[in-house]
Amino acid sequence: MRHARHRVTGRAGASGFTLLEMLVVIILISIAATVVAISVTRGLTSARIRSASADLAAALRYTRAQAIVHGKQETLSVDVAQHTYQAPGRPMVQLPGGMALALTSAVEDRVNAHTGNIRFFPDGSSTGGRITLSHGQREWHINVAWLTGSVAVVETRAGG
């Protein structure tokens, strides 16, 4: 009986990737995943801050509406040291971390060095003011017109 011998030689007919090729692909995938993660994180932070400025503007509009509906002066309080604000009859709101808060208001509406108010009157007018939220190079100015009490949000670059 004869035994057939099969002999495998070299790489002829072998297919696949080398270890080096696999490592290069893994490194490229890691870099791409890192870039995507960073951009998603920045996008989420920006959306969170934009939402906070919209919520603050809504609280100011709510305060104005309460003054008109109840026929009496209503006040939104801002604490720049604690990064909080409070509309009448509502719970105190804490701004997201990493966000700076500044208030420009009438002198008589300053409670102390870090707390102030924006008041609204029954006719819809207000004491006016500006609340600035900032994060990194971006700023959101919530402007309150004294004559009409209207509230507007303006987004800018810091220093511009």
Secondary structure elements and pairings:
Elements lengths: L18 H52 L3 E6 L4 E3 L6 E2 L5 E6 L9 E6 L8 E7 L2 E7 L6 E7 L3
Antiparallel strand pairs: 1-2, 1-5, 2-3, 4-6, 6-7, 7-8
Pfam families: GspH, N_methyl
Protein name: Type II secretion system protein H
Subcellular location: Cell inner membrane
Features:
single chain, 160 residues, minor pseudopilin epsh fold, four-stranded antiparallel sheet
How many helical stretches? 1
Percent helix: 25-40%
Radius of gyration: 30 Å
Q: Biggest β-sheet, characterized? A: 4 strands, antiparallel
CATH topology (level 3) name: minor pseudopilin epsh fold
The spatial strand order of the largest sheet comes to 3-2-1-5
- Identify the CATH class: Alpha Beta
The string of secondary-structure elements, in order, is HEEEEEEEE
Estimate nothing, just give the exact number of structural domains.
1
Mean pLDDT: 88
Number of strands: 8
N- and C-termini, Cα separation: 94 Å
CATH-level-4 superfamily name: minor pseudopilin epsh domain
Point out poorly predicted stretches: none
Strand coverage percent:
25-35%
Helix/strand/pairing class, anyone?
alpha+beta
Overall shape = rod-shaped
What is the structure about, briefly put?
The chain has 160 residues and is an alpha+beta fold. 32% of the residues lie in helices and 28% in strands. The model has no long low-confidence stretch (mean pLDDT 88).
